[in-house]
Amino acid sequence: MGFLTRIDPTRNMDRFYIVAVTPTLFGEWAVLREWGRRGSPGTMRLDSYQLRDEAETVERRTIKRRLQHGYFQSQPALDRHEPPQNGRWRDRNLTFKPNDHTATNMSDTSAVSDDEDPFAMANLPPRLTGLPMVVWASERMGARHDVRVKVHMAHGQRIDPGNLAVVAVRPVPRLVAGQLSPADLRAVSDWIRLNEAVLVDYWDGRIYTDELIQRLQRLP
To answer: Going edge to edge, which strands form the sheet with 164-168?
Structure first.
């Protein structure tokens, strides 16, 4: 289990990142991640693997990448990180309890470029956006390009990481990669224009996932 923090008072930054390997009820192994601002409920993500070695490899790789992004390993102060009544992490035993911020399983991250961290991406389902498909907003991290969102090219709640389009936010919404129908691109562009300020704030690390979700506006 890795518990990492990134603290920078000059930027009002006080983040945590937890990654752990745990068995599932189906005889597989899961990598459980949670991240956000310390003292507040974070975003959670659960990815399943058939072999424990696979899960542990992902755990080590995730810790290494977090360290490259300025995090430090520390001992988890669970009483500060999660109030006891939350019940998602108890006495160092992992108890997974989905909530509205739980990200969808997406084990294959091949569609994400090397300079982006897929686990710093917020999964935004249709009920939050008013769009007919899932979209993702992300933080800049080490990206060399300007703010973008990823868009699932198929409608509905299902996710195929190999079926993503990329849409740039500034100076005007435009398709960078993948394919979207004219109607879908128009809808995504309208949603981006409606939410450009909050998407940029999230990209620049000025807000966290919970505030992103609170500030997002749905399409009418």
So the answer is: 121-124, 135-138, 148-152, 164-168, 174-177
